[in-house]
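We emphasize that the prediction below concerns an isolated chain of 247 residues; any contacts that depend on oligomerization or on bound cofactors are therefore not represented. The input was used exactly as deposited, without trimming of termini.
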Amino acid sequence: MSMISRVRCLLYLLLSSVLLAFFHLLLLLANFFANDDLHYRGIDALNRSLLALPSLLGLSVQLPTLQKLPDGRPVLVLANHQHALDVSGLGWIFRHARLRYVAKIELGHGIPSVSRHLRKGGSALIDRDNPRQAMKSLTQLGQQLGREGGVVAIFPEGTRSRTGQMAAFHDGGVGVLLRQVPDALIVPVAIHGTWQLGKPSAQKPQAIRFDVLPGFSASGMKAAEVVQRAEQLIAAQLLADRTSSPS
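Result of the prediction step, given as a token string:
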């Protein structure tokens, strides 16, 4: 790996930290004035700025133009997970729906911008060591989704892939949500290439892609079937992305 590659990685990490700190101040200002519109405009600007940074590493970011989602219908976005930038990518793609997330409770504190938005935006912060708390938080989010509609993103792998190889999907969190919204629209999203970020490499980098796949209804399906279908669709898309990437 070259010195230039190392410098680019350090610059990426430094600028990411600066952006998170800067927009954190904006979110504090929005909270002071109780201005939800300013909060979400700040989050949109933060996500778009973070998505521009991979160009420093020679990585292009390909984002889809999302078609309008059905009004009032609960939507669950199921995606594979490789890097923190995945959150920004999904947040930008589904920005008009004010996307909420299922995230581990540790992310609710200590991370500029991110922690405040997770708490402010109505996401479910779950303690994986406390099943009762996790169940309660997911149930409350599912109930709200059933009453108001909206879009919730969940990463069924439960952790990030550090190599780009997708791990098996788990149906626990999805199952709790589906008990409250059994007819939810399921939208799989295949995320390709974000795992490369922040890692110096002598290899030619691949493009980062966010592919929103055709949605399907969860009606009449068990949670395990829903998750398995989403996993298969995402795995097929990732394979297609790798095959089509220039060597």
